[in-house]
Amino acid sequence: DSGVTQTPKHLITATGQRVTLRCSPRSGDLSVYWYQQSLDQGLQFLIQYYNGEERAKGNILERFSAQQFPDLHSELNLSSLELGDSALYFCASSPWVVGDTIYFGEGSWLTVV
Amino acid sequence: GENVEQHPSTLSVQEGDSAVIKCTYSDSASNYFPWYKQELGKGPQLIIDIRSNVGEKKDQRIAVTLNKTAKHFSLHITETQPEDSAVYFCAASSGNTGTASKLTFGTGTRLQVTL
User: Fold this and answer.
1) In chain B, what residues touch A68 (CB-CB under 8 Å)?
2) CB contact (8 A) between residue A103 and residue B42
3) Is A85 helix (H, G, I), strand (E, B) or coil?
4) Which parts of chain B sit beneath pLDDT 70?
5) Sheet harboring B62-67: ordered strands across?
6) C-alpha span between B43 and A26 (Å, rounded)
7) Who has greater pLDDT, A54 or A96?
8) CB distance from A27 to chain B under 8 Å?
9) Among A13, A85, A90, B35, whose Cα sits 20 to 30 Å from the Cα of B58?
10) Taking a C-beta distance cutoff of 8 angstroms, is the pair A55, A48 a contact?
């Protein structure tokens, strides 16, 4: 158990809908990362937050957004969902700065039908 | 940006044999290289990591080597066991400014240890 908690574990929704994935980082960790894992794309970095502020952005679509709250939990919002958004979404956390070990949660399986 | 290539994509070894997975990276500024193991239905789990000021690191049956000049690093698993069967990912950290950091992952190696 990495200490990173993600909910929900599984989610099935229809195209065009909007979903929110939630992540609680390890106790004391200030950085939260979101990754998307699909069969053909591997693990793709989406976005990083550090202590409530966006710090790094990867291949995140404009339909997706994220935020980190004062209690350090984070949410990833996915809107206008398409079939191709079906994937595993991972949250990870790390204590502090660049070069730190990051620990992954168990992921949220999103299926868009 | 950083690009990480990983080989082979699949690897089958007999129990007790060694397994080697290789990765190359493109950004010479990368300074942190972790390896993750992902079992079916689970999140990636860190198994070993190495920083750019070290050439080799070992933890029981697992070792990682880093060649900064050639920009490649490798994972070595000795005396493989069936429970080593999983997908292994290498990664490189290209973040070097303040608190911005991201890992770029390789495409994964599916390791199968057969009896």
Assistant:
1) none
2) no
3) helix
4) 94-101
5) B4-7, B19-25, B72-77, B62-67, B56-59
6) 14
7) A54
8) no
9) A90
10) yes
